Amino acid sequence: MKIFDSIKNKFIKEKHLWDKFYPKDKKIVVPNMSLYEYIYSCNKDRQDNIALNYFNRKITYYELFHDIDLCARAMRSQGIREGDVVSVCMANTPEAVIAFYAISKIGAIANMIHPLSAEEEIKASLISTDSVMLIAINLTYKKINNIIEDTKVYKTVIVSARDSMPTLMGIGYYLLEDHKVKTPKSNEKYIRWKDFIIKGNKYNSKVLVKTTKDQPAVILHSGGTTGTPKNILLSNGNINVVPSQACISLPELDETDRMLTILPLFHCFGLVECLHFPLVTGGTAILVPKFDASRFDKLLSKYKPTVIPGVPTLFEAMIKNKHMQNIDLSNVKYVVSGGDTLPEEKNLAVNKFLKEHNCRHNIVQGYGLSETSGGCVFATSGTDLLGSSGIPLYGNDLKIISIDTREELGPNNIGEIMISGPSVMLGYLNNQEETNEVLEKDSRGKIWVHTGDMGYINDDGILFFVQRLKRLIIVSGYNVFPSHIEDIIDKHEAVLSCCVVGIPHPYKVQVPKAYIVLKDEYKVSAKVKRDIKEYCEKNLAKYMIPKEFEFRESLPKTMIGKVDYRTLEKESTR
Fold it and tell me: pTM for the full model?
């Protein structure tokens, strides 16, 4: 019997429960080239197709490649070389896309920064990645100017959201918004985008650098397993393989499709699935730099996307929009939810809404993390059970392990979700200890990611997410680690101790709330409250700033003396 069990277990590991859902004649090949080379090779024969749509300004692939080349030459003219890190702190504008692929074209590495990050967070990101150039939206100028001298960045390119807008819209945007933003004229330290691009016209040397699938291409950001900020290093191959995998799960997509690229490009879901994926397939990325829930109906009616990816809060905004009654979604092929769990009740509500608006498909969920280059599990046809995340993208592997023994568990047993596949990150930049904690090599040499999430697979191998192992608040799809906010607040001179929990929010699902105990020499006052809030605004990204501050004489403790955050969570949700 033992010999039989051994053979049976080996068969189960090699032949997965979900294999029956895969096509028989497909093969995943990781392109051995850069991100730029991949989108160019896919579209060199269809350059008249529309690559980007930005407020109805349509940019063809020919124009996109031309602008990428100019930007790459401009970077070279300013001294950027292969292996350098260039940070991109941008909203979803054509300049962000152009800069991202220009960085790839010259063999440099793109460090993607949230433009709503606090100045100290921007500074920490620039320093920890050794960035030498920064491409930034003008709205961040004041923060950048306060910290840039403390970094290795020697040139900052300032971009306005109106730089690529249609003329009349650009004038309107300037009169309403842009005139409020004071930025310097081009000088030694700062250069405006249009002046920067002109320098590309004057640089005539070779700029294309051939890179391999294993070379680093992108740095994204995560709290890892501990909640402290980490720089996730992804290779060309990690990102390039995802479109190949996704095309198998989304077989209806082709070059005629229009992807609603509303998720930000500094977020893995936005960068890989909502930008790189449609550009690989020859489709159009509809760039939306700022989401306005009240105008979602106009967005859908004007641009008619065929693919609508989003986080649960986006779909909640969609079904709550009062002006959606006449919107026809019959052209929509896929509606995809990621970034957070979509509760069953909301899932059913979205499906009802889609059916009422002539959409032929239900919303489907996926599962992923930045450490796996975004989505690594997806609910394909037949695996899109209510509440499920689906099966691994073709070429990936999945297992559930016991938290206690680390042994692999069979179907319907809850444990930690482990992911393996070609999209698994290279590691955390300059942090081998944390990398070793998260990445684990098995006896066959396969690398697995400890996701820090709990779940189970059913008898068909379909994944169901249960809960997170780590403390985590999901704010409009963004991961917010309470421990990081606590570390910042604890450094304020008036604070003795702090605990941060998530509280319900009608639109964002959750927002942070801080419970604070002051040092004896400080009393609760309007000034102290204001000082702590201003301190948070300086040191935390906007979406991380606690929505509420509650001051107490003490915080509840566990039996071993740790702050009992679970008690505070229960109090906050009553």
Answer: 0.85
